[in-house]
Structure formats: C-alpha cells, structure tokens
C-alpha cells in the first residue's frame, strides 16, 4: 500500500488511513475541558475576592493590583488548553508554545517582583529604603513590562530559528495517520521556556530561606511552594513528552497547563482567600 493507505494481513485490498488527533467529543477531552472550566472558575472567583478586598493589608502585602494581573494571565493560560484540541496546523503548533510562555511569564514576573521585595526587606534592610520603590507601586509595573518584553524577544528568536510545525506520522499507528506538532529547534524552545525557568529559580532562591515569627503570615512560603510545584510538574512533563508519540502528547500538555495553574492557585492564592474569608 501507499503511505496514506493501510492493508489488513494477507489482504489484497487497501484502505485510506483516517486522521488521528485529539477530538473535541472524546471522553478524555470532555474530562479535561471540565477540569479547565473548574480551574478558570476558581481563578475568576479568587480575582473577584481580591478585587473586593484590594485595600486590605493582606492583598496589598501580597502585591495589590499585580495579583489581578497574575490571575488574568493564569486564566488566559487555562484557556490556551483549547489550542491543543482539534485538528492541528502549523500556525496552531506555533501559537501553542508562544501563548504558554507569555502567560506563564506574566504570572512569574509578579512573583519575581514580590520575591525581590521580600529579599530586600529581610536580607538587605540597610539598602531596602533606597531600592524598595523599584519593586513597589507604579515602578513594579515597569519591571513586569520588562520581563514580558524579554520573553517577547525570546519568542521572536523562536519564530526566527524555527517554530513548532505539523507532522503527519504514518508509522506510529497501524491504520491511522497521526497529526502531531514537532519541535524544529530545541535550542529556541529551550530559550523561550528556559527564561521562565530562570525567573522561577530566582524567585525560589529569594524566598525559600525567609523566616518569619510564628504569629506572622509568611508570604514568601506561598511563592516557594508554587515554584516547587512548577519544577516538579516540568520534570514529569519533559520525561513523558520526550517519549510519547500519540495523541497523549496533547493530553500531557493540557495536563501540564492545568496542574501548573492549580498548583499556583492552591499554594499562593487560595490560602490568602482562606485568610480573607475566615481569618480577616
């Protein structure tokens, strides 16, 4: 048979291969979309609660309006799961990685600013009055913009060096042609996602040694756990993603996005919601 056809054993008749990708009506897809809806709902409810209590000391101490921006980027990150469902194309393969990198960077840039502030106050109290205005109020938004701009530069490198592209795989499945996104330049891929990893690592270094007295709420601990979960998920993701050749690649990517979002929500934002609602 030709490449686009298959034939049963000891048969002289050939059949056309059907296309295989993650369909919208599959039970697994419906389960993932349900989880996505739950995550988005949680994010929106958290954002609404933070907006309502914007002037409270806890919300101000944990970043104020920066929290709303971070939650907005988390919501966009969850919505990007839809890019992995349905028939893929070259443009879709390229968009998947860029959207993931930019949305995650938007969230991590707010953690980065908070981590710098915590480090200045706890480790360098003498320098704190001089530099604190760079990581608080309006100038904090400049740093967020700078982080996003740097990520945009890495994204343009990724587009220039070789974005992900669509591959028709005829060997993995006996009767179907598997449509998957393939990485053209691992260097460009590494640059784009590695920058977020570096940002996360700096946040981790700045926050994991911070000590506060038992009666005070430790904001640094939330960032430490959120980053730790992100790294654990990425170790599993790389190990699984490198070996998979089926539609489960898309499932793995969606799972990574949702578990990262839920991890950040569960470790950094939901404990604050608990304090606002039950221990004001």
Automatic annotation (TrEMBL):
GO function terms (MF aspect): G protein-coupled receptor activity; sweet taste receptor activity
A single BP term in Gene Ontology: sensory perception of umami taste
Transmembrane segments: 30-54, 66-86, 140-161, 186-210, 222-244, 250-270
Coiled-coil spans in chain: none
Protein name from the UniProt record: Taste receptor type 1 member 3
G-protein coupled receptors family 3 profile domain location: 28-280
GO cellular component terms given for this protein: plasma membrane
Protein localization: Membrane
Membrane topology of the entry: Multi-pass membrane protein
Entries under Pfam families matching the protein: 7tm_3
InterPro entries: GPCR_3, GPCR_3_C, GPCR_3_Ca_sens_rcpt-rel
Keywords for the protein's UniProt record, in alphabetical order: Glycoprotein, Membrane, Receptor, Transmembrane, Transmembrane helix
Key word Transmembrane helix present: yes
């Amino acid at each position: 048979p030709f490449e686009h056809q298959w034939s049963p054993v000891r048969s002289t008749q050939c059949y056309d291969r059907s296309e295989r990708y993650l369909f919208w009506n599959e039970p697994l897809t419906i389960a993932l979309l349900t989880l996505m809806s739950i995550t988005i709902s949680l994010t929106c409810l958290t954002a609404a609660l933070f907006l309502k209590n914007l002037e409270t000391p806890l919300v101000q101490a944990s970043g104020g309006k920066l929290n709303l921006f971070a939650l907005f980027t988390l919501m966009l990150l969850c919505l990007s799961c839809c890019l992995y469902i349905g028939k893929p194309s070259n443009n879709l393969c390229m968009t998947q990685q860029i959207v993931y990198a930019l949305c995650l960077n938007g969230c991590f840039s707010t953690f980065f600013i908070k981590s710098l502030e915590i480090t200045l106050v706890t480790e360098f109290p003498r320098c704190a009055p001089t530099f604190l205005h760079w990581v608080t109020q309006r100038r904090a938004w400049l740093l967020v913009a700078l982080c996003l701009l740097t990520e945009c530069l890495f994204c343009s490198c990724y587009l220039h060096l070789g974005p992900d592209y669509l591959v028709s795989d005829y060997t993995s499945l006996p009767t179907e042609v598997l449509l998957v996104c393939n990485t053209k330049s691992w260097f460009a891929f590494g640059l784009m996602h590695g920058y977020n990893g570096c940002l996360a690592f700096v946040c981790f270094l700045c926050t994991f040694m911070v000590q506060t007295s038992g009666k005070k709420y430790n904001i640094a601990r939330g960032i430490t756990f959120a980053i730790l979960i992100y790294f654990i998920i990425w170790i599993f993701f790389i190990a699984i993603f490198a070996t998979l050749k089926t539609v489960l690649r898309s499932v793995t990517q969606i799972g990574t996005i949702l578990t990262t979002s839920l991890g950040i929500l569960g470790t950094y934002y939901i404990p604050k919601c608990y304090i606002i609602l039950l221990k004001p």
